[in-house]
Amino acid sequence: MKTQNNLKELVKQKYSEIALQDKETNDASCCGSGCCSGEITNIMSENYNELDGYNPDADLGLGCGLPTQFAKIKRGDVVIDLGSGAGNDAFIARHETGETGKVIGIDFTPAMIDRARKNNEVRGFNNVEFRQGDIENMPVASNMADVVVSNCVLNLVPNKDAVIKEIFRVLKPGAHFSISDIVLEGELPQNITEAAEMYAGCVSGAIQKNNYLDLIKQNGFINIIIQKEKKIIIPDDILINYMSDAEIVSFNESGAGIFSITVYAEKSIACCGPDCCN
Q: How many domains does the chain have?
């Protein structure tokens, strides 16, 4: 039985390796997990090419949505990007918030922070910074962010409740988040959920969609909306590494599914509890 720390170290190790790869290498994987497929180029990620502020060299192909497209970022906003990787979503957020705003990327993988900082240095942005830290205990003050974004990261965190509590803490009253993530409907076969590489590849760390949305609601968020949803189809040439032919047929017929969702929610303006009116 893996502990939360074991799982976090597994993800850190895997994403440290990914930080040293190029996008073309990661594009042959499911969220960079290395489970290569000849059937499709990339299972999870979306096309950023039409988004202003997009920088291909900061895109490692690790996302499962376009949260910044839906995040309603305004000029002058303070934006926090959770699991900021090489800086892709942070730089797009910076385009939206402009020179008068601020973007803080948080990632707990030192190699990713190094790569993001180098990408930022090339661009010369003085209002974008990358901080190494655990998103279960963010290295930022309370009530400081106008928007929180994240792309295919919470599913990798064992203690999702702690992360959602931290998102609530760092957002200003009335502020909001837009997060793309992987969730499940129905039960996946145990040999997939326990496969370490699939965990680092965004699938095995996912929880049931209803449980995910309930966590958000239970932590005090309001106006919860699914902004986008799509089913993720894992090709058979990936599944064959974890399942027999008969098990693949059974799984495909079971109705169980893996979904990419982008979720929006707001922190109530009226909130005056100890976690939001410090």
A: 1
